[in-house]
Amino acid sequence: MSKKHPTQEQMMEALTKPGPQLNSQRVNEAAPPSQEFGMQVKLHQLRPYDRNPRTLRNPRYDEIKASIREVGLKQAPPVTQRPGDDKYMISDGGNTRLQILNELYEETGEDRFNTIWVIYRPWVSEAHVLAGHLSENETRGELTWIEKALGIEQLKHTLEEEAGETLSQRALARQARELGFAVDVSHISRMLYTVEHIWPSLPLTLESGLGRPQIKKIIAYREACLRIWKHIDERPEEEFGPAFHEVLSQFDHEEQTELPWSIVEDRLLGMLEDHSTDIHLHPIDNALKQILTYRQRRWPITDDCQDIWLPLDAEIQRARDPENAPPLWPAEPETGNRQPPRTTPRTDDQAPLGDNAGEQVSLETDPESSDAPASNPSTEPPAVGNDQVSALQEQVRALEAQLAARTEEESVAPTTLEADTAPSPTAPTTERDDTASTETLDGLLDDRRDALTLSEVEEPEGHRRLRDMLTREHGEAPNDFDDNVLRAIPLMSNGPMHPITDLWYVEPQYREPRELRIQISQFAQALARWAGFNLPGDSYNPVQPTYEEGLGYTLEPLSEEHSQSQRAQRVWQLLAGLLGEEELNPAYPMELSVLGALISGTDDDERLPDEVLVRLFRLIRLIRLLKDALAEEDAS
Length: 636
Hints:
Structural class: mainly alpha
InterPro entries: Chromosome_partition/occlusion, ICE_PFGI_1_ParB, ParB/Sulfiredoxin_sf
Number of helices: 23
Protein name: ParB-like nuclease domain protein
Largest sheet: 5 strands, mixed
Region (Disordered): 1-34, 322-388, 404-448
Low-confidence stretches: 335-384, 411-431
Order of helices and strands: HEEHEEHHEHHHHHHHHHHHHHHHHEEHHH
Helix content: 40-55%
CATH topology of the domain at 37-180: Conserved hypothetical protein from pyrococcus furiosus pfu- 392566-001, ParB domain
CATH class of the domain at 37-180: Alpha Beta
CATH superfamily of the domain at 37-180: Conserved hypothetical protein from pyrococcus furiosus pfu- 392566-001, ParB domain
Organism: Halomonas elongata
Oligomer: single chain
Mean pLDDT: 76
Strand content: under 5%
């Protein structure tokens, strides 16, 4: 049976019948690629990164432009694409090159500047792109401090928006490192501090390239002034920020990369003095300088630091309660040439010459007038008669005659006393002998003092007097280097920590366990810094201070980099040995030659310098003293 064919009308009806309806949304363009690959694009398809941390012109702009003009673009810039954007965007640095390509294409019209190769990278997040730009510019070292600071602040806000929570500085550093931008926590702290407190006051100076050393100094001064402001406690803390801004903004100028610090310090001291009532400038100045010194030496600053707060507290009490204000310094003994009053009666040879030798000559006309009270100077003196005047004149003439006769007798023959004490022309005088002995002793003292001085300690007079006062309050005599130079174990050495004026003596105010731990930790860290670890700015410090327990410090293993240094191993092992045998690292040298190489070795690179050796001796003394103090506490 043959198959029935459709008619022409049926075929036309089938062909004109609408097809199945499209249920999905129409796609006008393809989705962004999900993998990294290279491709060619036109300049009109690219846009710069709109949140680029670089806000100032690249200092190498002209150099880069000349290079691209000659040889073209050597390195393909990385690009990405935001969701929903129709153009590609610079991803990890390359905004300067894109700007140069646009300029060159406008100037020349050459297609080699218009069509370029790029590396496409899939979109991840805003924080990822921002971290990429920061990392690229940090690698090239082209960003100013304020540009990096603003970029860090922007990255922090972006990460917090994505996470929905506030990030600590350590969390920010960790997440930035995960995004490929490694930055130290201390840098983050200073950068955020700069944006919050310094950027509003010094925008022109920061844009001119004010660097990290100056920023650290500004932060130190601001924090020191804030501590003094809160310690005086006359104005609310909220008023400090505007007052500091008013002073600092006076020094904001273009093309300035360093502040005039002597003037800045004077203005800040004036600010503190103006915002306190009747408090003199000198105690404020002393507190400011002491706080800056403590910060520089990394000493802990507490309310118990008497060399900072004692003079200021005394001045505050004087201003607020003058009647009960304590003396700032102990009374100084009188050192003038004032003669003590005479307590012995005159001898006969000291009495006035006359018939009545040994009796005091009185000019009073009335013998009973000596018992009368002294007359008022404002009253008129009593009248003196002619007879009385004549009698007085006769007495004066008699005394003059006797004095002339006595002088004539002495000119003929010297007295026995004068003959005995007359110097012999052949023998040296006693005075000359005393002078020679004094000069010899002074020379001996100077020679010994010079031999025991590694570096002169220049201690302010006020600080020395305060230290001596505290020592006297503890019932001991102050320790003086010059006085002890012939009878103690002094050795003067200045340095970036407690100056040393005696290897053995420890002042009583520093003998408490906590004070001893503070000093021990500082000396231990000084040894570590000489060995190359625990340096300022290091993210990992093997020597950790402990002020409340132990011997003042604990040890963590050296990093892989530092463990390659023989010097670092020996010093670490030495510090571990001072803590106890169980702290030693068997992987480091353990023989006694470790100590010998450090103390008496012949290699200058491995042997401790004198300045460091002195601090090692002092460290040992302090540890022994701390152990004795802890043993006494346990026994009690």
